[in-house]
Write a structure and sequence with these properties.
single chain, about 140 residues, mainly alpha
Length: about 140
């Protein structure tokens, strides 16, 4: 399988999994960024390494994950694991394997919510600062 990995689509996937809006990502990337520019970024098949690294840092995922994530491969792994597990744990099979998940999805969800809350608070603080500056300019 020699499919081309679409960096922009992967950025969008990870951003959405983290519950981060395009505006918030743009805010974190700096003044030169806007929601529209993030939308255009998510349409790019290949993203420059430095920008990819910055986005990955904000999304708190390894840059390599964005570079290499393939939905097809993930689905294949899931299907193979599911089918293999069904066979392993079949009644009468003496080689039963018990698989326990060490990751609590609720904890991960709560962590993501906390990150969103922090991003929102920083965005709100920035907006307050802008309002203060504008009020000072109007008073002069």
């Amino acid at each position: 399988m020699n499919e081309k990995i679409h960096h922009g689509r992967n950025i969008k996937r990870f951003r959405e999994m983290m519950g981060i809006k395009q505006e918030a990502l743009a805010f974190e990337l700096g003044e030169d960024w806007s929601q529209k520019k993030i939308s255009l970024l998510e349409q790019k098949e290949e993203v420059e390494d430095e920008l990819l690294r910055q986005v990955a840092e904000i999304l708190k995922v390894p840059a390599e994950a964005i570079k290499s994530f393939s939905e097809e491969v993930a689905i294949q792994i899931f299907n193979n694991t599911f089918n293999d597990s069904a066979g392993i744990n079949a009644p009468g099979n003496k080689n039963t394997v018990n698989i326990e998940c060490a990751i609590n999805p609720i904890d991960k969800w709560v962590e993501a919510l906390e990150e969103n809350k922090k991003l929102y608070e920083r965005l709100l603080e920035s907006e307050r600062e802008k309002v203060e500056i504008m009020q000072k300019m109007l008073e002069k």
